[in-house]
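User: Structure please.
Assistant: Input sequence and predicted structure:
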Amino acid sequence: MAYILAAGFIGIRFVDSFFVLISVLTPEMEKRMEKTIGMRIKECRVKMGMTQEELAEALLTKKSTISAYENDKIDIKISILKQIAKELDNTVFYLAGEQDEDISNEVLQMAMVLQQIQSKELRKAAIEQVKVLVTIVNTGEKAKL
C-alpha cells in the first residue's frame, strides 16, 4: 500500500518490513529538468565559437554579467534577451524554451517573407522552389529551376 505525500509527487511503500521511497516525475518536474535560458544562451554562444567576453562586448556589458546569465544567477530583461538572441543569430523563443529547435533568424525571416504571399498556390510554389534549391545545394546537382 502506498501513502502519497506532497501532492502525489513522492510516496512511501512498505515492502518486506522496509519503507521504500517512491518518486514519480510529474510534467512540472520534468519541465524543470529541461534546459534553462542560461544553458541555451551558452549552447548558442559556444556553437557560434564566441567567448563570454565577445558576447559581453557586443552587448556593451561585462563578462561577469554574461556568466551570471548563463548560470541563471540573475533574471534577464526581455529587451536584453532580444539583444542576446540577435547576437547569437537565434530567437527569443528558442532561448526561452518555447521553441524546440535552434532556428536562425534568417530562417524565420524567410518564413515571414513566404507568409506574406497572399495566394496559397503561389506560396506553395515558392516553397517548392526553395526545396528544389536546398536539394541542389545539398547534393550538388545541376537542375533547372
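The chain has three domains: 2-32, 36-95, 105-139.
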